[in-house]
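Tokens help. One example:
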Amino acid sequence: MTTAPGQAPVAPPVPRHPLDPDPVRSTKARAVFALGLMAVLTGLFVGGVVPATLALHLSRQARREAYASGGFLTGAAWLRRGERLAWAGLVLVAVSVVAAVVIGVVRLAEAPYGQDFAPHMD
């Protein structure tokens, strides 16, 4: 059955089996998003490593569970957003660590080397 000559055929909806569960959002997807948000917010203070790694680990588990559920677990958009936020948090941590190392090296290079004697001493 088609609706117009240029459109794709419309398939009738497939009836659901009465014992099929209702599609629900994965609770892990919400947790991944929250942990990713915390990773971004605390990323510059190096505290973002912990929530970011937890978010990435939890997102892997949530993806496996969603695949095994056969489409009855939703929340893939929340998972994607949470993963992106977690990776952004890790990038912020890396930037802050690199900046701290560069500042430390520059300050170490500016410090006097060895003992500093008075100008009239040999």
Observations:
- The longest strand covers residues 24-25.
- The chain has one domain: 24-109.
- Residues 76-110 form the longest helix (35 residues).
